[in-house]
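Problem 12. The chain below contains 414 residues. Write out its predicted structure in token notation.
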Amino acid sequence: MVAVIKTSRSINSILNYNENKVKEGVAECISAVNYPLELEKLSFTQKLNRFLKLSSLNENAKRNSVHISLNFDPSENHSKEKLIEIADTYMEKIGFGKQPYLVYQHHDAGHPHLHLVTNNIQRDGKRIDLHLIGLKKSEPARKEIEDIFGLIKAEGRKHKEVFTLKPISVGRVEYGKAESKKAINSVLNKVLFDYKYSSLPELNTVLNLYNVHADRGSEESRVFKNNGLLYKILDQNSKPIGVPIKASEFYSRPTLKFLEGKFKSNEAQKESSKKHLKNAIKLAFQRENIISPEKLSKVLERESIHTILRKSNEGQLFGITYVDHKTQSVFNGSSLGKEFSAKGIQENCAINILALERKYQNSTSTNPENLEHLELRECVKENLADILLRAEKINDYVSKQFKQKKKKRLFKGI
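Solution.
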């Protein structure tokens, strides 16, 4: 089981989110705890007013609303009664057992999960401390509950199940906005909060794997000028399909401002993941005869590293990006160092090709292995010089000694 806790200033928006899911037929309110009426007799207003009355007892609390999701393994299929019991046990263990709370069972994702809605203002007006509640209370509670109810444990599964998120099936979203929003949201919930990316292109590198794209629009567009952001679904040819959705329409509000904050925090967090990726690439060159970027991609895929090769219309490789699913980090090749950039990888491939040529140049055998290298030599022979001599960047720098001396201007009257 995985527990995710979010706090907010508005209980209204949290409650509306879950009730709208109920109206859409993808969720169900299965329990109302510490309410004066039974669940079947509660209206939306009564559910809301119970929280608002407690919130009014402490107007100094900046964040008085709590939204918790309890996520279970896709293979688990628990009864409604067991889910309610799990929710009650969890709330008791994190100190919210006496608070009013609502339990919603959602059916809009690939795994069973619950949403718990509550607030942290008690009957005496004192607030329940939310500082480090995930580390101090939620984690111990989660582990106990896994043992008590025999749930599949979350620990140790994070790295093993890195490919459980499937690309969006475009056939299901061609018909309108509702299906598109649901499909995009399932991808965003996984990628935005689990992966470490430090720019919009890096984020799109991951999103594109699941047929989603974050788009600012052209510089002349109103979306771009207003710092807006649209999320689109891509078809098999990486072209937008269906209706674009504004970032502000999603519950998590993954706007450009939100992403810019993630870029800054992720930049520091990514540093610890660089070593793993660098070692994986170096080992690939040491253990395999890597003679092309495409071959490197296939080898790294076995290590759960997805490699995106960016090529010009002429087929020339000009950029490379790595998505390490084990550390859930995204890196542009040049940010790892020159040898991991597009030019560096091509140079290493060229060196391997030359080494193979030297190894087999005196061989007259016609076994399949030698034939393979003879064919390889013919294919890449004419491109070797270009790879080794190609400049990675061209700039306008001119050495001082070659610059023309500026003529001194004479001012009249001086």
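Discussion. The radius of gyration is 28 Å. Students who got a different answer should revisit the alignment rule from Section 12.3.
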